Amino acid sequence: MTTRREDLIAAARVAAAGAYAPYSGFHVGAALLMSDGSMVTGANVENASYGLSLCAETVAVARILSTAERGALEAMAVSGGEPGAPGQGPTVTPCGRCRQVLVELAQLSGTDPLIWCDGKDGVLEVRLSELLPHAFGPANLT
Predict the structure, then answer these.
(1) pLDDT digit string, tens, across residues 1-28
(2) Which residue in 6, 46, 57, 74 is the catalytic one?
(3) Confidence (pTM)
(4) Does the chain have fewer CB atoms within 10 Å around its N or its C terminus?
(5) 46 noted as active-site residue
(6) Using one digit for the tens of pLDDT, what is the confidence trace for 80-110?
(7) C-alpha–C-alpha distance, residues 44 and 29, integer Å
(8) Which stretches of the chain are DSSP H helices?
């Protein structure tokens, strides 16, 4: 488990380097581990019209949902900070919108993935259900 965690955190840090964040200067990367062993990454993409910006987690989930290969989400890491220094600032957790987007993906396959939130004080390990208890998702529509 530790290797998966370290690999995902490293991939999230690398993904953060690809962020387009000219307005906030805060680069975030996410790495999602699927049940087939594949890893999908994403970085935040800002827009001059701030409301149109995309979080790293949302970018990664969109990459997964836009393909026919929709395995089960097992784990995820998120890391962020100033350019060139992901993981060196405060612990980064998914925002509320991203938590909801992650629930959609997780409920499609009935998983409750581990999420590793990277920061200078260490890594916070939490289940998605702890980040967004009593979530609304596809399971509520059946």
Answers:
(1) 457 999 999 999 999 999 999 999 999 9
(2) 57
(3) 0.93
(4) C
(5) no
(6) 999 989 899 899 999 999 999 999 999 988 9
(7) 7
(8) 2-16, 56-65, 96-109, 128-131
